[in-house]
UniProtKB/TrEMBL annotation:
SUPFAM superfamilies: Cupredoxins (SSF49503). Pfam families: Cu-oxidase, Cu-oxidase_2. Keywords: Metal-binding. This is Cupredoxin. Residues 473-492 are annotated as: Disordered. The keyword Calcium does not apply. The keyword Metal-binding applies. It comes from Rhodotorula toruloides. Residues 474-483 have a biased composition (Basic and acidic residues). Residues 29-173, 298-402 form the Plastocyanin-like domain. InterPro entries: Cu-oxidase_2nd, Cu-oxidase_C, Cu-oxidase_fam, Cu_oxidase_Cu_BS, Cupredoxin.
Length: 492
């Protein structure tokens, strides 16, 4: 069997000028990592959001294989009984060619729906020089763990290689990050790298290269976040919390979960399961002067240009790759367990060289504190990047400067009229995907948010009135260039 997507993207140049610690690369190649399911996402999501579940489970499923630049060979020995098809071979896969004596910058992008992938090149170390657009110290590694939505640049050196040499790039799914079984998963997708110069005609012989011995399961964590260049973030003026939790059953026979009165699994942020009213975007609500704090989405608000710290806690889920739109954030502290309002203000933060990125993996039972400068007015989605968890409600938003957003309703404002008209054509009560009238019961009623209001270093995140007045003078200039960058719940 061969997957249908066989369109590797054409390489485009990536400049190394922002990575002064490493010599410029002489070649570059984007490597897209994806995952492939033998059922469509519609089928899986609609099943997960029904009382039948998907294969009797409400846990995000594993794919059947990965994809590298849109292609993979599925090894039929993993197939479930009764599934038939033609077994393709590695020679049917596209391959990539690089010159000898080159520094090849490989930019890995995990554009998949669920799995964490280990990427590696047989018998060649990769020098990591970038994580989510942030330059890092060039560290040689055997494998890079690439979570969903993560991007890394790893430099491959082809010095000493001769024309015709070949070896494998491997993307290997880390099965330890799944919360459920994976009986028909083919976890490894190899792609042939071949050394060639222009004009050479080479036989497509298979490489005899050997994989690294480093394990590809376990250690479901991100890159060491201290391996970055120094960049001190400013002092925070607000601390808020996103508590991630679960309600409902894990399987159709999970009696404890079903006894809660919810027939399928939902994820929550601050006790709210997101419901996407597809024709009523939050951005439009704010422009109309409405209060978006309707209990349908967990919101953190920055009223002014200010530095915001956010504590994210994964109270009882599997590892979640949390992602924030609009602004990258510094990862300033993380650990196991949970933190309460009495300890947040006294946490030991890395203010020396925290990694600046826009996605982080948060393992089960751990917390992380991120910091960012809220200077881009808009409604910026904050969500788990596992698409099934998004559909199950693990989705919130950071609302920056709603007062600035509201001014867009003035004549000549920037909200496209066509967009407003498009939304007006739909039913404002439609909830997407497939969510209608469910019994709602909250199991977790954590006191963090309310207590934070009374904490000396923190303030409310839900008040409709501005509560933060500290605006650095030098940051006012940024307002002039600020534009609306994001609208959660755009019309679909
Ligand atoms: Cu998740």
């Amino acid at each position: 069997m061969k997957n249908q997507q066989v369109c590797p993207p054409s390489p485009r140049p990536l400049l190394d000028s922002t990575f002064p610690d490493f010599p410029s690369s002489s070649a570059s190649q984007i490597i897209f990592i994806n995952d492939w399911y033998h059922d469509t996402t519609d089928t899986i999501v609609n099943s997960l959001l029904s009382s039948q579940g998907y294969n009797s489970s409400f846990v995000a499923p594993s794919p059947q294989s990965g994809l590298v630049n849109g292609a993979a060979i599925y090894n039929c020995r993993f197939a479930e009984p009764g599934l038939t098809g033609e077994q393709k071979a590695q020679r049917d896969m596209p391959e990539l060619r690089f010159p000898p004596d080159a520094r090849v910058r490989l930019r890995f992008v995990n554009a998949g729906a669920h799995p964490v992938n280990w990427v590696s090149v047989d018998e060649h170390e990769l020098y990591i020089i970038e994580a989510d657009n942030t330059p890092t110290l060039p560290v040689p590694v055997h494998r890079i763990s690439v979570n969903v939505a993560h991007r890394y640049s790893g430099v491959l050196l082809t010095s000493g290689r001769r024309i015709g040499d070949s070896f494998y790039l491997r993307a290997q799914i880390n099965t330890a990050c799944f919360g459920a079984g994976f009986p028909d998963l083919d976890p490894q997708t190899p792609l042939i790298f071949r050394i060639a110069d222009e004009g050479h005609r080479l036989a497509k012989t298979l490489p005899r290269s050997r994989d690294w011995n480093d394990p590809t399961t376990g250690n479901c964590t991100d890159l060491d976040e201290t391996v970055v260049v120094q960049h001190a973030p400013p002092q925070a003026e607000q601390i808020s919390v996103f508590n991630s939790s679960r309600i409902g059953p894990l399987t159709t026979t999970d009696e404890a979960g079903l006894s809660d009165g919810i027939s399928f699994l939902e994820w929550t942020l601050n006790n709210i399961t997101y419901e996407n009213f597809a024709y009523t975007p939050l951005l439009h609500q704010i422009v109309r002067g409405e209060d978006p704090n309707t209990g349908r989405i967990a919101l953190i608000t920055a009223w002014n240009v200010e530095t915001v710290d956010i504590v994210i806690q994964n109270l009882n889920g599997p590892e979640h790759p949390f992602h924030l739109h609009g602004k990258p954030f510094w990862i300033m502290a993380r650990s196991q367990g949970s933190v309460g309002p009495e300890t947040i203000a006294s946490l030991d933060l890395n203010t020396y060289n925290p990694l600046l990125r826009d996605t982080l993996g948060l393992p089960s039972g751990e917390w992380v504190l991120i910091g960012l400068v809220a200077d881009v007015p808009g409604v910026h989605a904050f969500h788990c990047h596992i698409v099934f968890h998004q559909a199950q409600g693990l989705f919130g938003a950071l609302m920056i400067q709603p007062d600035v957003i509201r001014k867009l309703q003035d004549p000549g404002g920037e909200l496209p009229g066509a967009l407003a008209l498009l939304c007006a054509q739909g039913n404002p009560n439609v909830i997407d995907p497939g969510r209608r009238g469910r019994l709602r019961k909250r199991l977790f009623d954590l006191p963090h948010l309310d207590l934070l209001h009374r904490h000396s270093k923190t303030s409310t995140t839900t008040s409709p009135q501005p509560t933060h007045t500290v605006v650095h003078a030098q940051q006012h200039d940024k307002l002039h260039d600020a534009t609306i960058r994001s609208g959660v719940g755009e019309c679909s």
